[in-house]
Design goal:
Layout: E1 15-16, H1 20-30, E2 44-45, H2 51-57, E3 64-69, H3 80-92, E4 97-102, H4 113-119, E5 124-127, H5 137-143, H6 153-169, H7 173-180, E6 183-190, E7 196-199, H8 206-209, E8 213-215, H9 219-227, E9 231-233, H10 240-245, E10 251-254, H11 256-262, E11 270-273, E12 284-289, H12 290-295, H13 298-306, H14 308-332, E13 336-339, H15 342-360, H16 368-388, H17 401-406, H18 413-421, H19 423-427
Parallel strand pairs: 3-4, 8-9, 8-10, 11-13
Antiparallel strand pairs: 1-2, 5-12, 6-12, 7-10, 7-11
Amino acid sequence: MLAGLRRGRPRGTALVAVLASASLALAGCSGSSATEETNAGGVSIEYGAPKSAYVDALADMQPVTLAIQSTGPKGSATGRRFEDYAAAVKEWSGGKISFEFTYSNGMAAPDEVHLALADGRLDIGSVMPALVPDDLPAANAMGDLSHLGRQTPVDWMLQWHGIMLDMAASTSDVDDEYEKHGMKLLLPAFGSGAYMPYCTDSGTSAKALKGRGVASQSKVQNAEADALGLTPSSISYAEMFEGLERGVIDCAFSTVTGAALGGFIPAAPHVAFAEDEGFNSPAGTIAISLARWNELPLAAQQLMFDRLDVLLQANFEGAWENTAAAVAAVQKAKGEIAPFDEDVVAELTAVHDGVEKKVAASEAVSDGQALVDAAKKAEADWATRIDGLGIDGVGTSYDDFADWYAKGVPDLQPYFDALWDGAMGERRPA
């Protein structure tokens, strides 16, 4: 089981005793400018420590039950990330931290999760910044750059998450605005695959795409659609199936997960992408109530942060499970996942150049140009990193994905070590 795995590498002394007052002082000094972050003090656990170190550190902690909301039904591929994460935290805390689940956004709608975290209805949930751009402008500026990275199924998951987490670590603006709204940002971004247009008819050229209606999920996707001659419509995920079936739209921007779970591939089995020029990919985040977070001992905060690797592992596994289902559905419907013609790639590149210039000049973050520079650097860095991690599957195409997936998900520990050695390590409570 994922919850029983030892995550990270041991690094020196596992458990460092600190005075509660010192922990509080350090936490206050390291908190954002938006609010003074604290914790309940106690010992500090070094990253890479075994489960016994966390259990011992939390032995005297008063048990706590956290209200958590899953985006999917119980046991689903999309909900697994929340369930595996909760199970891991409970086990590694020696049962001191447990969870009460609400499934399928049953407590708060996707555009209200940030409010539910602030007012105490939820303790942990997935916030979608693209749904609340006025409240989270810095997170949306970061999300505007989410087209970066290779667009093949294995590479996207590895490189895209590295890019987004590096971007978040490069600025305090995103964390600050979350805390301003009563939330502590645990995971700045997670996604379930590259966005691509799923269409009722085949076509990979600008001429073939012109005039088609497409369901769009963000302002940047609207701009991408306009550049390709598509007519964007704000149609929710739940309405895509009916829209495609009834001919209200001809295409839908979606991830493989959205397409597989939405069941609309038989109506729209013609998919296109550019390997090195993606579409905007609105991401989810994981946040916890700031008030609840500040009540937890430091070791509990570190545990909840360190076991985000379990959440990411489950997220990757779920995304690839859905990719396999989507590829099979496309083939069954006599469709294809084909490369765009060069004219489409050129249009997308021009749009993204404009998006990057807009973010650079934006007042949503304190230094827009620095954010763009960090994003481009992260894209280059993670292209090199994933090639050098020795993870089987890097470079796998959609055509070859079924054969790769049949072998089983490879060991991703080298990838998580790379994340925690960098951006995630910088964010770790200390």
